[in-house]
Every structure is written in C-alpha cells, then in structure tokens.
Amino acid sequence: NKAQAWSARFSEPVSDLVKRYTASVDFDQRMAVHDIQGSLAHAEMLAHCGILSADDLKAIQSGLAQVLQEIEAGQLQWSIDLEDVHLNVEKRLVELVGDAGKRLHTGRSRNDQVATDIRLWLREQIDLIVEQLIALRRVLAEQASEHTDTIMPGFTHLQVAQPVTFGHHLLAYAEMFERDTERMLDCRKRVNRLPLGAAALAGTSFPIDRERVARTLGFDGICRNSLDAVSDRDFAIEFCAASALVMTHISRLSEELVLWMSPKVGFITLADRFCTGSSIMPQKKNPDVPELARGKSGRVTGHLVALLMLMKAQPLAYNKDNQEDKEGLFDTADTVRDTLTIFVDMMNGVTVHAQSMRDAARQGFATATDLADYLVKKGLPFRDAHEVVAHAVLTCEKRGCDLPDLTLEDLKGFHPSIESDVYQVLTLEGSVNARDHLGGTAPAQVAQAAKAAIERAK
Ligand code: ARG
C-alpha cells in the first residue's frame, strides 16, 4: 500500500474497498487540463505576491507543462492510491521538479481547487452547448422559412383543432430553444466566479491576490465568501436544470417526429441515417434517434434531481458528498451536446410530405372556428355562433363530408346570414391567412418570424 498524501497521522491504511469507494480519479481525471490551468494561475499569483520564488514558479510551470503533455499522450499512470485528479497531478509534478512542486499547494486546498476545476470545465461545456442551441435554432428557422405556407393540422389534445403552417410549428420549437440559450447564458454568469483563495473553508493566512487569479483564468469575479465558495454546487444544479429543460423540449420534438413518421400519419420522413431496421420485420424503419432522445431526457432530469438531493441539508462548508456531483454533471453535458449535434443534422434532413399534412388538416373540421368567427362578424354573439357551427359539424359527420362540402343552401339552413363569401373562410388558406397578427400562423407572419429568428441565430 502506497501512502496517501494525508496518511502521516493515520495508524492503519484504508482497505482496498474503501480506497475504491472514496477515489474519484477514474472520472475526475477528465478535468485534468482545467486542474493544471488553475494550478498555473495560482502559482503565478503566489510568485507575484512574493509567496513563491521565481525559480520555484519556473520549475512548477515547466513541470506542469510536462504533466499536461504526458496526460495528452495518455502516458500518465493514474493511480487510485492518489484518490483524485488533483493529487495525481501534484504527485507527478513533485516527481518531476521536487520541492518546488511541493510548494504549489501553499494557500490552497483541494476544496477550492475542485470547485475551480468544475467551474472551468463547465464554462467550456456551456459555451459548446450554446453554440449548438444556436445552430439548431438556425436549422429550425431556415426550415420554417421554406414552409411558411405548408398547411398542417394544429392539434390540442392530439385532436385536430385548427389549421396551422408547418413553419409556424417549427418556430414554436425555435422559441423554446431560444429561451434555453438564454438560460444557459444566464447560468454561465454564476458559473464564472472564482472559488480559489477560499482554501479549505476559511481562507488562508498568506497574502494572496484572488482578483489576479480570477483575471488570469477569465472569471468575471471571485466568490465573495470562502465558506460558500467551497461548498455550494448551485451553479451545477442550475446548469442541470437548464439542461433538463433543453432535453424536455427535445423530448417534445422527438415525440412529434415519431408520431409524424408513423405511416398512419406520414407527415415526414427522417433520413435513413437516423433510423434503424428490425432484425425480424424486414419492412421496418424505426425512428430510433428521436425515441432515444426522448428516453435520454429522463436520464438528464434524473441527474438534476440527484444533484438537488446531494446538496440538500449539507451543513457548511465542504463535505465529501460533493465528490458525487461529477458523474451526473459530466453525463448531463455529454448527453445534451450529443443530442443537439445529432438534432442539428437530423432536422436539416427532414423530408416534408406537404400533401399528407394538407389531407390531415382537411379532416376533423379544422375550419369550424373560422365559421363561428364569420358568424360573429355578421353580428351573432360568439356563444350562439359556436352552437350554430356545432350543428353544422354534426350534419357533416352524419353525411361524411367536410364543412366546405356543404351547399350554400345547407349552410343558410343553419343560419340565414351565411353568404357565398363563407367558402373563402372555410378553406385552409383562408383560415391561416386570417390569423395575420404578431405571433399568428398566417404565412406572411411566419415568413417575418422566420426571418427574425434566423437573424437572432447568427
Ligand atoms: N475529490 C474531491 C471532490 O471531488 C476533491 C476535494 C476533496 N477534499 C477533501 N478534503 N477530501 O470533491
């Protein structure tokens, strides 16, 4: 048993199981680059403040450069005897440069070190995710601008409600992902604060310059309270919450893609590269990617709940519980990034079956509300108009026809104020064109909205 960094005061070594149980190096080695980044900034500040000699700083800088090289070349031997990424990197540094390496940890604790590493890592992930969210919004808005007058049924309760344009439908998702972008950027502000200098919990007796380290590492500022700096993970929880919403929106879109892809609906076809076949049914082409994305939304929400439970009731300041924050956080970012990358490509390659959409909109009396609105414009109170149209729909149902199939005579039978101009209102085009205001589904509005959305996704 190799001795742990802290083992001098212990009378017996930990068992192999406890060693494995308490070690995090298998997963936190992922933050090695950020750990080194943080150490370099810390060492530079120590030297600047006269806490470390210029020679020691040089030794640390060249030593860490070599450790980084070894890590990137896959040559560093990670050891669970050294618990986590921090102690592994430090141990290798000491092997390379001796006493200077042992001075690196002056005025620092793994508690403020790990909090810094996570923030540096997460900041990068947020930037990648924001880029992908913007790319997805652009694809959706560009598709929308090609389908400003492609008519489909709009649903409530998954029952045909009123005709909408496919472009309008896509832009609804662009809106959701735009809010997700805002949430990520807002969360980034609170991620981008420096914990270093808090040391274990109370700060340090050395004359450090935290603002300097913050500037070096590109943080917007420091965490103001040392106890808070090392112990809270609310910034990670916020990121997971924003991610859970991204995946929730993805799951809604996925559900629709799966539905639209069903031969019973047939609104779209996904490119073959996002589908798989069946090992028994030769005819099958299954929309696996959106189905999996729908499933993965549950996994990401699970990570959010796990982190909330991890944080709940933790007394100040650092507790080892917090080591459990990483795997779920890493998996959240990985899942969101992969999902968005795939969706950008997949949404770009959707084949739209405009005729099927149109045919579906012609079923289910999608323009019934338009007929009611028509009667209101002729002077009927809306509630009376609603009833008149209900009777017309019942008749159509019995005859197996649609509202525009009724003769003017039939229609006048329901209400004498109905004239031949009613047919314009009962068409799908008449219906969508009539909703010509900000946020409405009229092709002219959708064209404007798509253009603005593309502009905002630049
Ligand atoms: N591996 C630990 C973590 O992820 C680093 C901090 C440990 N600090 C300590 N005193 N045990 O949280």
TrEMBL record:
<keyword id="KW-0055">Arginine biosynthesis</keyword>
<comment type="pathway">
    <text>Amino-acid biosynthesis; L-arginine biosynthesis; L-arginine from L-ornithine and carbamoyl phosphate: step 3/3.</text>
</comment>
<protein>
    <recommendedName>
        <fullName>Argininosuccinate lyase</fullName>
        <ecNumber>4.3.2.1</ecNumber>
    </recommendedName>
</protein>
<dbReference type="Pfam" id="PF00206">
    <property type="entry name" value="Lyase_1"/>
</dbReference>
<keyword id="KW-0028">Amino-acid biosynthesis</keyword>
<dbReference type="InterPro" id="IPR008948">
    <property type="entry name" value="L-Aspartase-like"/>
</dbReference>
<dbReference type="InterPro" id="IPR029419">
    <property type="entry name" value="Arg_succ_lyase_C"/>
</dbReference>
<feature type="domain" description="Argininosuccinate lyase C-terminal">
    <location>
        <begin position="365"/>
        <end position="433"/>
    </location>
</feature>
<dbReference type="GO" id="GO:0004056">
    <property type="term" value="F:argininosuccinate lyase activity"/>
</dbReference>
<dbReference type="GO" id="GO:0042450">
    <property type="term" value="P:L-arginine biosynthetic process via ornithine"/>
</dbReference>
<dbReference type="InterPro" id="IPR009049">
    <property type="entry name" value="Argininosuccinate_lyase"/>
</dbReference>
<dbReference type="InterPro" id="IPR022761">
    <property type="entry name" value="Fumarate_lyase_N"/>
</dbReference>
<dbReference type="Pfam" id="PF14698">
    <property type="entry name" value="ASL_C2"/>
</dbReference>
<dbReference type="InterPro" id="IPR024083">
    <property type="entry name" value="Fumarase/histidase_N"/>
</dbReference>
<dbReference type="GO" id="GO:0005829">
    <property type="term" value="C:cytosol"/>
</dbReference>
<keyword id="KW-0456">Lyase</keyword>
<keyword id="KW-0963">Cytoplasm</keyword>
<dbReference type="InterPro" id="IPR020557">
    <property type="entry name" value="Fumarate_lyase_CS"/>
</dbReference>
<dbReference type="InterPro" id="IPR000362">
    <property type="entry name" value="Fumarate_lyase_fam"/>
</dbReference>
<comment type="similarity">
    <text>Belongs to the lyase 1 family. Argininosuccinate lyase subfamily.</text>
</comment>
<feature type="domain" description="Fumarate lyase N-terminal">
    <location>
        <begin position="9"/>
        <end position="302"/>
    </location>
</feature>
